[in-house]
Here is the input.
Amino acid sequence: MKKNKNLIIAIVAAVAVIAILVIYTVVSNRDSSAGTETAEGTSSSESTDSSSSESTDSSEEEVTIDSENPSVSSSLVITVTDGSSTSLKEYPVEDYVTLGDYIGMELTVDPLEEVDDESVTYLAESYFASLATEYAAALTEGQLVEEGDTANIDYTGYLDGVAFDGGTATGYDLVIGSGSFIDGFEDGLIGVAVGDTVDLNLTFPSDYASNPSLAGKEVVFTVTVNYVTPAMTDDNVSVVTGGSYNTVEDLEEFCRAYLEYVAQYNYQSALDSAVIEGVLPLCSVTEVPDWLYNMLYDNLTASIESEASSYGLDGETYCSYFVGVSMAEYALLMADEYTPEVMIFQAIANAEGLNPTEEELDEQVELYMSYYGYETEEEVYKYYISRDNIEMYLMQTNVADFLAENAVITETEATTE
Here is the structure.
């Protein structure tokens, strides 16, 4: 990830407060079963470890976390409580980290995905359709229904003047000519203008199995054509996008740029993960400071809550459902793995002069202010992310870029389907 990335890349990357490494950690932990993490990991509380190895009681013990000092619940050796600065950049990480030969690592990643015309067209049509529904009635008012159109209709079926069960629907999308309805229904809508209502005199098939009580019966369907799915034309594109894109070509260019960005972002994420997997075995950490552990534990908990909210869940329910452990235990598992990684990256940043400058920090804060509409830096720190976390994120980004630039990268062979 280069420092001159545009705004959207910076914002997407910054959504994860602790960025590159936390993505890797979340994915790796999620891919493992909860049982494996509990049985093999060394990051559960001492009481949990004890019960699994010595106790004959098969019941599981709930992990209890000291909310004021989560590090006391970790099996990591947390002994650094000397009151040193809580800025990781100023902390003597070199006293606790041994770095290996990280220059020239051999990494393997999948190649950058190519964006083809078919994918661009599909995304453009899908995006247009998602926007067009709101404007469809106005855009197609008075338009005559043709075979092959998708007509949005309301209908009610009557038998002897009484609406029958299962014969009523509103906002139904019907492809004219699909044969989805009984004979005569779809043909009867051809030539009907959007906004009009017609009565269709029809007869159910004599062998109508879906509702035998209607078999062979003469009925009347009263049908209103609400709209026809608008065609993706230059004029319609301009209307549904509010003038952001005035032609189909403009919209497709936007979709192509978006798909290329996603492909680049995915490639970069895979490269970041390869960097982490490559550098960690080369280095070792003897201790981590408790203030760092607790800060990252809090960040990870906030990240879990944020991800859970995207599913409409709270963090505890999310972890119980997707991971099989409590949120506190899951955050401990992640913090145990993640904290030494941060120490290693900081040691490399110190050794290679990769700590972000105040100018870089200010620039990143300005991006957040612009994107979220904050008027002051203090609002960013209060409502979104602390300056320490911004500094940590940029440091990790700089180190990941440096390691990738100095690595021997082999791309896997592209597979054809």
Summary: Residues 1-60 have pLDDT under 50 and may be disordered.
